[in-house]
Amino acid sequence: MSFVLPDRHRAVVRALGEALFAHPGGPSPRQLDALVDGVAAHFQPVSRVQRALLLLALDFVRWLPVLLLTSLAAFESLSVAKRIVLLERMDRSHVVLLLMPLIAYKTLLSMHFFEDEGELRAMGYPGDERKRWLRTVS
Amino acid sequence: MAANGELEVLRGRERRARLALSADVVIVGSGAGGAVVASQLARAGLAVIVIEEGDWVRPAEYGKLTPTGTLRRAWREGGLSAAIGLGDTPFISVLQGKCVGGSSVLTGGVCFRIPDEVLHEWSHDLGLRTMTPEGVKAHFDAVEQVVHVETVPDAMRSRSTELFVEGAARMGIPMKSMRRNTRGCRGVSRCNFGCPHGAKLSVDVSYLPDACAHGALIVSDALVERVDVTGGVARGVRGRLLDADGTRGVPFEVRAKVVVVACGSLHTPLLLRASGLDSPHVGRHMTLHPGFRVGAIFDEVVDGWDGALQSVYSDHFAADGITLVSVYPPASVLSAAFPGVAAHHRAHVHKMPNLAVFGGMIHDQGGGRVHRGLGREPFVTYRMAAEDRPHLWRAIEIVARMGLAAGAREIAMPVFGIDTLKSERELDDLVAHPPPMRRVECTAYHPLGTAKMSVDPRAGVVRESGEAWQVANLFVADGSVLPTSIGVNSQLPIMGVAHKIAAGIADDWARLARAAA
């Protein structure tokens, strides 16, 4: 049976993406929709144990503001600026429990987000055409 | 050898009725080990069936899939498997294929033979008499011909690699051209996600088509749950066909005179345990070759994606257990490794055209263990040996200094939570006060040794022939039989050893058939 990512977890993924990739003018709602769909699809092929761990990590992020006594609101209810502060704290943390959920989701979300053709162009990726191999032909 | 031929695959996901088959040999796993054995034994005239847990991704699909799409279709656990670090050990991503062709579909194509000094240790110290350079040469010769191992031309080096080679030269570190199993590589740097041009001769386009051409049958989406053993002799395998979403469907069984287990170092021990093998060595002694990447940002435009994903290496520090290797994964994958979040992270990502990447790995002492997990996947732990930690740090430091020597203005270290380094002095400070190992970003592609070969049943799981000490007619032919870490990429070593094991099975068939009767 296909796994459907629950709405509360989709909301956390979206909030994570909105903060991780925040920049003036973005990310757009279309990009965030695609990001959430992409990450949700990634839950499909993994084992039940791995899926449970990934969901647990999302729940952990969701209630991190409360656990760290920074707010009584869930992660997705915080402003983007406050979410970024929280993520930066996780990024610098020496506590594995704080670091690992960020690493896991930053990796997964980045791979999905930067596959977007617009993002690839924006970072200067020219597409799949290559020139060096022609030197071996000539 | 019929390379690049079409495969004929019976897809378990498309079958709703029970499946009962019989063959001379059933092989569990279609990767570098299983495919080589399948081809060899099918050519010897034996009826061969290959069982693969993963999906069949047709080579024509590789170029159409995004990297994340490939992760979902062809990588185990969607690319999210890991070894949990015990003590001061990194959390290590352990990447493995789960598709027809196994991890060979997802390698960088790098081909090394087992180094002579490693073979010397195996033959002299461990008593494995035939594991000598002379004893394995013919097998490597044969394998290299089939998968077309060639030296990467200098012209295929990306600018990313050229810069690090320049830095290495300034430090007096020699670099050598790699050899890879390619033909007509166009240097799109996405070998780890299936070659979009069919230039990498992974086993799904080399050995498996040849096996099929000689009568072998491949069954995909089929999970082997145990090897049937009666009277101390393997009689076949049984398990469940898997639906498209991986759930267990109808049962299947294959009766066979010989069973070859080649599911890789993480899953072979689980299957052996589930089949009653209780050797204390099953699942232990796992080595990983923990690897890392260092990024270097230059003023010049590098466009590191234009060129072979991997093209040079250095064994200059082999005495310290260090191998340096060039690498350049797809841009979307690299983006995840940049430090910071939000605008800070984005600013780094937008330096991608100026980014060069180089990596390394260590010839580790072991310390890994595969435990039975709660579900189908194992629980893997790894305790890095005390002597390996300074080697890993030294390797990271060397590569970072290579980047600076080449003129990089920033170095992105494989350490979570630290910003890029801007000078030798900042690197000196980091080296003088290294963060804990658990903050180091590590990846492993070469788990080995979890069913190691030995000359004594008290010291390992299989004989030198690959046959299990505890069960007759049960062979293991994948990376799990390698008794130590090898310090180089494991694809070709697995193929070479599997070729040797297959030759032994063919030569010994009369005895094996009698035992099965």
- What is the share of helical residues of chain A? 55-70%
- Percentage of residues in DSSP E strands of chain A: under 5%
- Assembly state (oligomeric): heterodimer
CATH class of the largest domain in chain B: Alpha Beta
Average pLDDT over all residues of chain B:
96
Mean pLDDT of chain A: 94
Structural class of chain B: alpha/beta
Largest interface: A-B, 53 and 55 residues
Largest sheet of chain B: 8 strands, mixed
Alpha carbon gap, first and last residue of chain A? 53 Å
- Helix-strand makeup class of chain A: mainly alpha
Number of continuous helical runs of chain B: 14
Q: Ranges of chain A with pLDDT <50 over ≥5 residues?
A: none
Looking at the overall shape, the CATH architecture of the largest domain in chain B is 3-Layer(bba) Sandwich
The main β sheet of chain A shows up as: none
Series of H and E elements of chain A:
HHHHHHHH
Which secondary structure elements does this structure contain, and how are they paired or packed?
The complex is a heterodimer of chains A (138) and B (517).
Chain A: H1 7-20, H2 29-42, H3 48-62, H4 64-67, H5 80-92, H6 96-113, H7 117-122, H8 132-137
Chain B: E1 9-11, E2 19-28, H1 32-43, E3 48-51, H2 59-62, H3 67-74, E4 82-85, E5 92-94, H4 116-125, H5 133-146, E6 149-151, H6 159-170, E7 176-177, E8 179-181, H7 207-213, E9 217-220, E10 222-230, E11 233-242, E12 248-261, H8 268-274, E13 291-297, E14 312-314, E15 322-326, H9 331-335, H10 342-349, E16 355-362, E17 368-371, E18 379-382, H11 388-405, E19 410-412, H12 424-432, E20 442-444, E21 474-476, H13 491-507, H14 509-516
Parallel strand pairs in B: 1-9, 2-3, 2-12, 3-9, 4-18, 5-20, 12-21
Antiparallel strand pairs in B: 4-5, 6-8, 7-14, 10-11, 11-12, 13-16, 13-19, 14-15, 15-16, 17-18
Helix pairs in contact in B: 1-7, 1-13, 5-13, 6-11
